[in-house]
Amino acid sequence: MGKQIFHGRYTTENDEDMVVFLIGMRINRRLAVHKWLPVFTAMPGMIKELYTHQEELGFLAMENYFGLRTTVMIQYWQSTEHLLNYARGQKHLAAWQAFNQKASATNAVGIYHETYVVPKGNYESIYGNMPLYGLGKARKHIPITKERITASKRLKAQK
User: Fold this and answer.
1) Which terminus, N or C, of the chain has the lesser number of Cβ atoms within 10 Å?
2) Are residues 84 and 28 in the same domain?
3) In what order do the strands lie in the sheet with 141-143?
């Protein structure tokens, strides 16, 4: 059984600040599996922790993408404080220290992250015939009404 499809057009509430966090890795030398695999396998434990303690950590939702060499995870957080507290937490700190010990001295694997602080009213979304996805998982998922029919109206709804 697949994910529930919400027929019609939907958007999300944008009445709260949020943080969008992109994190990923790039395999620079495919044959150096012993260098990049530990970086890749560190993430599932952290993802499990995020969903297990979602509310107390301030973690809202995420999406994953895998390419031939590069991965990216898009995460949604309640605040920068929540994100930074998690970054200093035991599971993430241990993974970061292991990376620094094993892989940072090699160019076989690269890592990156980007953080965007998005004030309320400064994001909008639209989903047509989609399951809960992205912001739709992170914020309240609501049907589009005439008051929110255009991107411009959705952006002004909370300003």
Assistant:
1) N
2) yes
3) 127-130, 6-12, 141-143
The residues with which 70 forms a beta bridge, in sequence order, are: 26
Instruction: Spell out the per-residue pLDDT of the chain, length 159, in tens.
Output: 578 999 999 999 999 999 999 999 999 999 999 888 888 888 888 899 899 999 999 999 999 999 999 999 999 999 999 999 998 887 777 777 777 776 677 889 998 999 999 999 999 999 999 999 999 999 999 999 999 999 999 998 665
Give the Cα separation of 135 and 77 in Å (integer): 11
Strand bridging mode 127-130 / 6-12: antiparallel
**In whole angstroms, what is the distance from residue 113 CA to residue 21 CA?**
7
In angstroms, the CA 137 to CA 49 distance is 18
Domain span holding position 127: 6-13+120-131+140-156
Angstrom distance (rounded) from CA 18 to CA 119: 6
Residues 127, 113 share a domain: no
Whether 1 maps to a domain, the answer reads no
C-alpha count within 13 angstroms, C-beta hemisphere, residue 137? 20
